[in-house]
Each structure stands twice: as structure tokens, then as C-alpha cells.
Design goal:
Strand 1 (about 45-50) and strand 2 (about 55-60) form a beta hairpin. Strands 2-1-5-4-3 form a 5-stranded antiparallel β-sheet, sandwiched between helices. A two-stranded antiparallel sheet has the order 6-7. The chain is of the alpha+beta class. The protein has helices at about 15-20, 70-80, 115-135, 140-145, 150-160, 170-194; strands at about 45-50, 55-60, 90, 95-100, 105-110, 160, 165. The mean pLDDT is about 85. Helix content is about 40%, strand content about 20%. Helix 3 (about 115-135) packs across helix 6 (about 170-194).
Amino acid sequence: MQRPEAWPRPHPGEGASATQAGGAAPPPRAAEPRFQEPSLYTIKAVFILDNDGRRLLAKYYDDTFPSMKEQMVFEKNVFNKTSRTESEIAFFGGMTIVYKSSTDLFLYVVGSSSENELMLMSVLACLFDSLSHILRKNVEKRWLLENMDGAFLVLDEIVDGGVILESDPQQVIQKVNFRVLQSAKEQIKWSLLK
């Protein structure tokens, strides 16, 4: 049986033995590609704009855009790039952006340029389906504005600090309903104590 040999084998006249014997030194190897360390922090931002590009809801999870002014400029630029297209994915400013439009709303999920688009799309789909349930299938500006607290609860159940917590809309709705119920119980308890 033949023993497996190390790969790649140096050719005659290359390697340490050739260098010691006065032979030519091996050619330098090309730098190996560096892979980014895996991270749970996959979401940079989630925002919802109206059909004029104005912010209705936004949460940023890192310091890529530290000020409100920089965030608004970024949102306006993203809206201008995506509002006239039918695709669902855009690459802008070194970031991957997935988006969906519904009646008079544009929903966006932003990740780094190396982020998996399918992960971002699962967050977007979960956000849309959960909002659809909360808003009783009326994913429109008017209904969103009237139920903004529920929209923030939905978003908080899906993403926390840039980490994806849940991508199943039924689980999100169940958790939101539980939080609303707990909040109602607390309000009743405090009103009875007064």
C-alpha cells in the first residue's frame, strides 16, 4: 500500500533542500483569501419609508451612520435607487439591501456587503408577514402610523441589536401578543392598586 504524500510536493530544484543546495528559491505564494469571521450581528438597519421616501420607522444597529442626518441621507439615496426598480436586492455604499414595496410603503433590511441575501430576505419576509398580521392585511402607511407601537414590537422580536432572533412570523406574532397581554395585565394591576 502506498503512503499518501503531502500536497503540494515541491518540484525538483525547489523547496528547502534546493535552497540549501544552492538551487533557486521557490516562487512566493499568492496570499490566501481571508475570510471574514462569522458573526451573529448580521443586520445593520431596518427601515420603512413612505412612497415619497420619508421615514416612518427606522432602527440602526451599528455606527455606520451615527447621526440622524447621515441616516436620513442614506435612506433618501437608497429610496432614489430602489423606488423605480422591480428587483428585490440592491448593493449600495458597500452594503447589501433587500427591500419590498407594498401599496404606499417601502420596507428595507440592510446588511454588510458580505452578508447572505437569503438571510436578509428571510428577515424582510418575516417583517412583512408579521406586520400584515398585526395590521390585518392592510400594510399601508395609514394603518402603520396608527399601530406604530405594534410595528416596533414586531421589529424588536425579529432583530435585537443586529442579531436575528426570529424569522417565523407565527412565532413573532405569538411573542408580540404575549408582550401586549403582559403589558395589559400590568396596567390593570396598577389601576387596581390606586
